[in-house]
Amino acid sequence: MAAAEETPLTGVAWAAAPEAAPAGWTVITVTVEGAAANLGKGFGHKGGGYLCVSTGGAQAVPGPVVTDVQVLSDRSPQPAGYTRAPEFPEPRNAVSRKKRVYVKLLPLDTAETAVFDIKLSSKSKALPHYMKIGEMGSFAIWCKKGPVLKPSPPPVPKPRTISAGLKQLSLQPPDSDHRSPVARCSTKRASQHESLYDTSNIYGLSAMDGVPFTLHPKFESKLSSGSNAIFADLNVKSLADIEKEYNYAFVVERTAAARLPPSVC
After folding, report:
1. pLDDT at 251
2. Is the predicted pLDDT of residue 195 greater than 70, yes or no?
3. Which H/E stretch holds residue 183?
4. How far is CA 44 from CA 33, 51, 99, 125, 225, in A?
5. Prediction pTM value
6. Higher pLDDT residue, 256 or 219?
7. Where are the beta strands (DSSP E) in the chain?
8. Geometric angle at alpha carbon 104, from 99 and 105, rounded to 5°
């Protein structure tokens, strides 16, 4: 049998013949040794009988899963919480059952462990990692159990208010919402004025930054007598005086430009 060990079984039943099992069920036709796994005598059928399992899986069939299987004699009472394994085709009341198969089903979200595989072998055979649940005819029945892996819930997005979302879309700083337009303009001009003289930025340095300054000795005595004494000897020039003093007619340059280029011999 090729049972899917990664998903728990969703049902255990038995069929009178391999072709009697409905769609979605896998029939156990051979034992682990390769012998025919016909359990007809154990079920009281002359024609035969085979165990079969359904492997819908936790993802494909999110319904009940098999958590336990028991094989008991017909004189044993039915265990609490177990149901009798279905038969394909419908069972006949006139046929006696020497052994009965009981299955315990639980919802997937409440099951902690489940049955993942069932195998048949001879009575003298031991299967590692499998648990023997009973004997039927000349065969031993084994099941493999394991923990049920619960699907992780989808991530839930963190709730966000509308005001917080709209605030992130604004181009204004968070603290500028409660100030008037005049206050915001004043703050903007002050920040621009301070950035021109911010020495932490190389582009905000002045041309006089770092140049040493010392007062000339002839002005030291006058500076102490009064704040306006230093301005007494200052000569104030008009714009015409400055243009006359620093006038440059570019005569040499004009003469050089007017010279004819030497003739080519």
Report:
1. 78
2. no
3. helix 181-196
4. 24, 14, 9, 24, 135
5. 0.52
6. 256
7. 11-15, 25-27, 50-54, 64-73, 83-84, 87-88, 99-107, 113-122, 131-136, 139-147
8. 140
